[in-house]
Automatic annotation (TrEMBL):
This is Co-chaperonin GroES. It comes from Waterburya agarophytonicola KI4. One of its GO terms (molecular function) is metal ion binding. It is found in: Cytoplasm. The keyword Transmembrane does not apply. Its main location: cytoplasm.
């Protein structure tokens, strides 16, 4: 089977989708206890790497996406499609799955 090697610069989301780099999971608790891989929670914060052109309206125009490349965002826990490129984890999700920007 052939292996496809992708880079983040070759991924362009379509429509109202957003491509995020997932923030690393917490390695230890607030009390300093190291967490095993099975106990780590899926991170819900990511950095926007690429954005689509926006949602197409009924009249054919597009509604621009509210976030831009470089923004840190909080997204729904079970939203999107998980993608692994090299050693980095990414998520491809719809704009409606983004809950807030992180300042």
């Amino acid at each position: 089977m052939a292996t496809l090697a992708l880079q983040t610069s070759t991924v362009k989301p379509l429509g109202d989708r957003i491509f995020l780099r997932v923030q690393a999971a917490e390695e230890k608790t607030a009390g300093g206890i190291l967490l095993p891989d099975s106990a780590k929670e899926k991170p819900q914060i990511g950095e926007v790497v690429e954005v689509g052109d926006g949602k197409r309206n009924d009249d054919g125009s597009r509604t621009p996406i509210e976030v831009k490349v470089g923004d840190k965002v909080l997204y729904s826990k079970y939203a999107g499609t998980d993608i692994k490129l090299g050693s980095e984890n990414y998520v491809l999700l719809s704009e409606k799955d983004i809950l807030a920007t992180v300042i």
